[in-house]
Amino acid sequence: MRSFRDAKLMAKTLREAMASRQIDLSHSETLEIVARQFGLADWNTAAARLGEHRADPTPAWGDASGVGLGSGIPILRIFDLEKAREFYLDFLGFTLDWEHRFGPNFPIYMQVSRSGLTLHLSEHHGDASPGATVFVRIKGVDAFRAELIGKDYAYSKPSIQEDAPGGRTLQVPDPFGNRIRFTQARD
User: Fold this and answer.
1) Hey, where are the domains in the chain?
2) Radius of gyration from C-alpha coordinates of the chain
């Protein structure tokens, strides 16, 4: 079975191949086509189903009943796709994994990731409340801060709080009132 990453690469390859034939397809459209090639209803279904086929989909830990919960994926509310791309992709350095719309002129729902952290960003009214906070464990908080400061993003100049709960924390607010707290445990 192909993986989620393989399916994304297939969509990208399809989009490039069609573009070379002057057929313009969006990334979202090619993801939907790839999902149908796998015999699935849509890309959201494909992403969930293909994610099940990782080498080890079950956490190695669990409680006494045998239940092992995996990492959660926070959903953050966004209001402007271009501002979201500028912040999450350009500034924070995340990669766009996929995006979905139910049709033309519908709100966007997308997944971004970087180095083990996955976030869902949604324009849909009921998906999340603006002003959420996401707590993220990080190694190399100083290097990450230096990377961000080096990008000279006009809307954020993150600083490290030394005495934050959990360790040294770099809090970065997004343009929509959400905050991401990157926290490195004290030595």
Assistant:
1) 4-51, 75-184
2) 18
Residue 84 identity: A
What's the one-letter identity of residue 60? Answer: A
pLDDT tens-digit series, residues 3-19: 666 777 778 887 888 78
Count CB atoms within 10 A of the CB of residue 2: 14
CA distances from 78 to 10, 73, 125, 148 (A): 28, 15, 9, 21
Kind plus residue range of the DSSP H or E element containing 112: strand 109-114
Helical (H) or strand (E) element with 180:
strand 179-184
d(CA 99, CA 102): 10
User: So what's the architecture of 75-184 in CATH?
Assistant: Roll (3.10)
Per the listing, tokens 């770099």 go with 170
Unique residue bearing structure tokens 């490195």: 184
Q: Kindly state the tokens that stand for 77.
A: 């509310």
pLDDT band at 53 (very low <50, low <70, confident <90, very high): very low
